[in-house]
Amino acid sequence: MTDGLWLVVGLGNPGPAYAGNRHNVGQMVLDELARRAGTGFSSRAVGGARAATAEARLGVLPGGAPGPRVVLAKPSTYMNVSGGPVAGLVQYFGVTPEHVVVVHDELDIPFADIRLKIGGGEGGHNGLRDITKALGTKDYVRVRVGVGRPPGRMDAADYVLKDFAGPERKELPWLVDAAADAVELVLTQGLQQAQLVLHTRS
Known about the structure:
Blueprint: E1 6-10, H1 25-37, E2 51-57, E3 69-75, H2 83-93, E4 100-106, E5 114-118, H3 126-135, E6 141-146, H4 156-160, H5 166-189, H6 191-201
Parallel strand pairs: 1-3, 1-4, 4-6
Antiparallel strand pairs: 2-3, 5-6
């Protein structure tokens, strides 16, 4: 599962007003991956897809060889219509759905926990739902970055569109770094091994 080109997508909403929101943690992780690869994002539309993209190699394969070729992508559309850019990039680069990794916020996981899966439901996440619809399959990899449930009676939609709270902000760099590690594990060791490492560790 580590052969060939990968597409790694970080979900979020466009513009500085949303940049620090819980909903944008996927794009924070993509920025960290680009930093590690020593590259930056281009806003030029590739294959007509509305997304900022960067091409790189990520991670190190067992044995020490450089990790696989990767297209990093941050859709420039709003979260709820992420499917179009993802499907456009999949078609343009000829990536199989199994080589698509989507990094996103997850309400059903405690803050700072990270879980990996392929397929399954979207858990009410409209960005994932739109990607599933656009790709015609659920069988892509999800890196689920836990943001926890909203406190009290706060609406979930309002909660994810707020910035991380003070105590969370202190831990956020660690969380982003750990999620980037999880992406690299998937790319270099495959999903099952990455799940074994990550889910056993936590």
